Amino acid sequence: MESKTSERKQLLSKIATGNGHGEDSPYFDGWKAYDKDPFHPTNNPYGVIQMGLAENQLCFDLIKDWVLNNPKASICTIEGVDEFKEIAIFQDYHGLPEFRQAIANFMGKVRGNKVKFDPDRIVMSGGATGAHEMIAFCLADPGEAFLVPVPYYPGFDRDLRWRTGVQVVPVHCDSSNDFKITRTALEDAYERAKEANIKVKGLLITNPSNPLGTIIDRETLKGLLSFINEKSIHLVCDEIYAATVFSQPGFVSISEVLEEDPECNRGLIHVVYSLSKDMGFPGFRVGIVYSYNDAVVSCARKMSSFGLVSSQTQHLVASMLSDDQFVDKFIAESKKRLAARYKVFTQGLEEVKIGCLNSNAGLFFWMDLRHLLKEPTDAEEMALWRIIIKEVKLNVSPGSSFHCPEPGWFRVCFANMDNETMEIALQRIRSFVVQAKKPKVPAKEKCWHGNLRLSFKASRRLEDAIMAPHSMSPHSPIPQSPL
């Protein structure tokens, strides 16, 4: 049997037989646990609640109203069917002109109209995943590397490395200064790569940060521009959460800082964007590479053939984003609802002495459970995480899956559920923490989960709740969880 397995592997590529995708990460294991036992208010009220999905579902009522009021925007309606043929036939992979113009205008609007974007530099891709891989292919050869501050989004290990052969060199950041990027940390990472004979081709940052939910201030961004210019390396800025900044200080785009620095080599600056987070459209797969480098734009546009956005999606998105009144209302209301949801969660956790990193952006917060670890090790973090998954029935993501150097931090997503589910999730966390602080009792006598169920049953107002139908996570094609 073993020889047959080995023979089959020899017939396939290294990508097919390797583990470069990184699906064995706890981040993806949490998805599998949810897929196996998904919460439903009536069909499975004690199932796992999905808090590992950074999805913005708080403003779908606004989207629904716009779609109902603009039936012509979809070519699959009576009102829009006359445009079906023109949209359905082949389209240039540059993208529909009205789509690129609408995206350029929207990018400027969510950045406070402090900078304008050229539609001719808009290159589309199949979501931010495809956009990151595209930019990695354009900027680096196999074996070369990007510096990436930690903690960072687990998908970067897949997006940047899996098919490109590019490496990731972590830039050490820690809680002593709220995980801010320092020049010292950048220099240390650059020197480590140099000593290992790894050529650094760029620095990748996320602003606002995933998983921290924080923004990078103007002075730090200026320092990053100075650093990459001195080293003659690229700066890739993932700004996919730009419109999720819900309180002060406001978001500052690298494009805005670039306009203030005439000495900077503009050809080194590239922005990754999408509509997955700001608009809540991950299923539309609208990813964007915006580069100030003409050669990169040209190459990326050729590569976009492998991951185009469907012309029907382009047509609908262009129509929606061209409605300035709707866009203004959506952005304002989304920020308002994100702020309210964040406040409910973080204040609720404060009541049971759970701290979170002070943040003001994104669809998640960075929860501090270091005080619940017996000792500060990754093993103890994983033990705590398994309890949260198996017993508390919440899919939150452990810091180690984000390469966080300090065990005990967890990313908690809060915008992908309705208010009733939010209340249940918050109650589960609070009940668990209260019980965890009590003197230890034999396992069969532990009652926090029972109390939780009673509390849940007593306060439930879910009979009329409408939950999104469950579907398999796109990140975890293998349905079985090692948990």
From TrEMBL:
Pfam families xref list: Aminotran_1_2
Keyword Lipoprotein: no
Domain named Aminotransferase class I/classII large: residues: 49-429
Keyword Transferase: yes
Known cofactor(s): pyridoxal 5'-phosphate
Biochemical pathway: Alkene biosynthesis; ethylene biosynthesis via S-adenosyl-L-methionine; ethylene from S-adenosyl-L-methionine: step 1/2
Transmembrane regions: none
EC number from the UniProt entry: 4.4.1.14
Gene3D superfamilies cross-referenced by the UniProt entry: Aspartate Aminotransferase, domain 1, Type I PLP-dependent aspartate aminotransferase-like (Major domain)
UniProt keywords, alphabetically: Aminotransferase, Ethylene biosynthesis, Fruit ripening, Lyase, Pyridoxal phosphate, S-adenosyl-L-methionine, Transferase
Superkingdom of this protein's organism: Eukaryota
GO biological process, one term: ethylene biosynthetic process
SUPFAM superfamilies listed in its UniProt record: PLP-dependent transferases (SSF53383)
Recorded family membership: Belongs to the class-I pyridoxal-phosphate-dependent aminotransferase family.
Protein name, UniProt field: 1-aminocyclopropane-1-carboxylate synthase
Lineage, top ranks: Eukaryota, Viridiplantae, Streptophyta, Embryophyta, Tracheophyta
